What we know:
Layout: H1 9-12, E1 18-22, E2 28-35, E3 38-45, E4 51-54, E5 66-68, E6 71-76, E7 85-90, E8 96-98, E9 107-111, E10 119-124, E11 133-138, E12 144-148, E13 154-159, E14 165-172, E15 175-180, E16 189-195, E17 200-205, E18 211-215, E19 223-228, E20 233-239, E21 257-260, E22 265-272, E23 276-280, H2 283-295, E24 300-306, E25 312-319, E26 322-330, E27 335-341, E28 354-360, E29 366-372, E30 385-391, H3 405-412, E31 416-420, H4 430-434, H5 443-457, E32 461-471, H6 473-484, E33 491-495, H7 501-506, H8 516-522, H9 530-535, E34 549-554, H10 562-574, E35 579-584, H11 594-611
Parallel strand pairs: 30-31, 30-32, 32-33, 33-34, 34-35
Antiparallel strand pairs: 1-2, 2-3, 3-4, 5-6, 6-7, 7-8, 9-10, 10-11, 11-12, 13-14, 14-15, 15-16, 17-18, 18-19, 19-20, 21-22, 22-23, 24-25, 25-26, 26-27, 28-29, 29-31
Amino acid sequence: MTARKLPLEDFFRHAERGGYALSANGNQLAYAEPDGDVLSIVVEDRSTGERQVFPHPGGHDITPLLWKGDRILYLLDESGDENFLLYAVDVTTGTHHLLTPFENTQVRLVSSLRLSPVDIFIEVNNRIPECFDVYRLNTMTGEYTCIVENPGTLTQWLVSADGIIRSAAEIAGTATRILYRTESTSEWYELMTIPFTERFVPLHHTEQKTLVCASSLGRNTLALVEYDPQSNTELRTLYAHDEFDIAHFPEIGIFATEWSYVHNELSSVWLMTDTVHVHCFSEHARKMYERLAHDYPNALCSLYTQSADERTAVILVIDDRRRGTYLLYSADTETFVQIGDAMPWLTEADTSPVHPIRYTARDGRDISAYLTLPHGIELASAQQIPTVVLVHGGPSARDFFWFNSEVQFFANRGYAVVQPQFRGSIGYGKDHWMAGFKQWGRAMQDDITDCVAWLVANSITDPKRVAIYGTSYGGYSALAGLTFTPDLFACGIDLVGPSNIASLIEAIPPYWEAEREMIYETVGNPSTDSEYLAEVSPLFHAERITKPLLIGQGANDPRVPQAESDRMVEALRQHGIPVTYILKEGEGHGFTQIPNLIEWYTTVEEFLDRWIGSGAGNSEGEITR
């Protein structure tokens, strides 16, 4: 059965509901809901159903972060430059309060301090842009007290249930020192010094004064272990997989474990293989997840927010065809009630299943990928389909087996979409990650080329109708694909992708400064690797590009500055190469504002249709808007 062609807006407009936060007593739900093109916070009384709407007076998107008393906290980046500030809205008065009135500053939540009715821990780089100090913030008065003044190299804090920062990581060039202390007034002492290629992340502090940690020490993959900081020894492995890491990706808000503070015990750990798996340690977690696994197989069913007594919780259910369903769970009755759906206008009749596949790169490395076909086409019968190669950002990141609006949009428009997990991707063990060191434009790009070759060899893809598209590193890969394999792709799309690797490294945000030596090791050093970086930078080889290119850029991007795209566009136009450039003020590392998103994907749709879709081969030159 062929899916109906849906309006483009159905894939990229705001979710109907999302970002739930449950009050401490479990009586009130806060969530984000569209108000025109922006999000407002809605508070719903669970007993009466009464709703209050709290838009931000500046007309910006706001999403609940957590409750503190009668206040809901949220972070807001007003210009796309990643300078997030912390706000609170008082649900009794409707008044918004800026709790961190700083300029050119990024605020991050460190701990909600669940035992405190008003205080939280935050980290702020207002003193020195290159590092973050930790403060205790009173969310009612706005008063804050410095807990840790950062010498410039500390990160990765572990706050125990009693509100003590017990461990931290200190970056020292390409090494990391793991620090620990027994009390808030105790001196830090070193547990270990490890190379940055290893990971040792304390996640929880137990009643027995041991640590539950994510660790790759002595193994290829990231495992869950129990560690004794007193004797400085690993006590036992709690959970591990030989091929895949446990799912600890804090940079994108994914944490490996769930912990019960009421029972003071480890509840569960997540594993991302080609799909999603959960392993339960506690009986109450096992009961809940067994029921969810039965009702929602192959879905990520995660504990999104819960009441202080852990008797009421909101569960997020997300899979390859469902952007997000929210369930209210009652531990007393062991029942689930659906309370929201991110995209109720999309059904299985409109979306396509995602197929995990494997292929072999030219040097014999086994590579995972996800393949999504237009609705109604089975993998066994797929033949000569125009294909979009969708390259993830990072590159120290990975794609997941869950809903992706771009993937489903392209599939709805009749394209196959492939997402290769090329070397340098994380989640597949440190060997796969390290195989990507200093391989931009080389082996990492070869893995993407080899993915296309596999699709063509299996007759899935029409070799004359392949596009490459990506954001951030994926945007670089799109530029590299058109530059270094000009006959492979019919067109390319780059969103906030760098064109000159040396200038990208030199312009890193100040809060990445402590990681500079690590970036030199993984990507390259402009001083000692200048020849290699120039060789793999598309800017210096723009004349090799022969296929049409679409570039998008946010003017306030702190990671990939606007100059990266400006210079590439200028070089292409000097060589008479077709290029369309969309530059948006007020946007950062990607487009987030709904009107800009709609304009971007409208252009993307027209571009793909012209070069690999129904219009392929019928027109020439640059498209303009």
